[in-house]
Each structure stands twice: as C-alpha cells, then as structure tokens.
Write a structure and sequence with these properties.
With about 80 residues, the chain is of the alpha+beta class. Helices cover about 30% and strands about 25% of the residues. The strands form two sheets. The chain has a two-stranded antiparallel ribbon with strand order 1-2. The protein has a two-stranded antiparallel ribbon with strand order 3-4.
Length: about 80
C-alpha cells in the first residue's frame, strides 16, 4: 500500500503509511496508475467502486497536476 500526496508543490509517496485525513483511495495496479496519469481517463476507475472511493473532483485535480513532458531532450548540448 502506498500513500501519495502533494505538499508544497512536491509529490510525496510513502510505503505502508496510513493517513486518517485521506480525500480518496485508489486500489489499482501500477500500470493502471500510469495509464491514469498519461491518458487521464477516469471513467473506468470511477465506475468500479472496488477501485475508487472518495471525492472524484479531488482525484481529477490531483491527476491534472502531473503534466507529461518530452523525454528525448538533450541534457548537455554542444
């Protein structure tokens, strides 16, 4: 189990940590999480109550913070 949060514009994740003040809970695989971050298709997860519990709007806000970027940029240029 992983706990994820955004604090002071920093993405924080902790293993085996439980916070009493959670806004939503996801019970999905890593591949489903990556798909959610990249495709931002919430419908399948939101419809399955075994995968999602909590505030739908806060889930959407959380995912929208993560912006895909080009991974083929030059680290050092001549």
């Amino acid at each position: 189990m992983w706990f994820m949060s955004l604090e002071n514009s920093t993405f924080i994740y902790r293993e085996n940590y439980i916070d009493k003040n959670i806004n939503f809970e996801l019970n999905i695989t890593i591949s489903e999480l990556l798909e959610l971050f990249l495709d931002k298709d919430f419908n399948e997860i939101l419809e399955d109550k075994t995968k999602f519990k909590g505030d739908e709007d806060l889930l959407k806000q959380f995912i929208d913070v993560f912006v895909p970027f080009e991974n083929n940029f030059n680290i050092v240029t001549p």
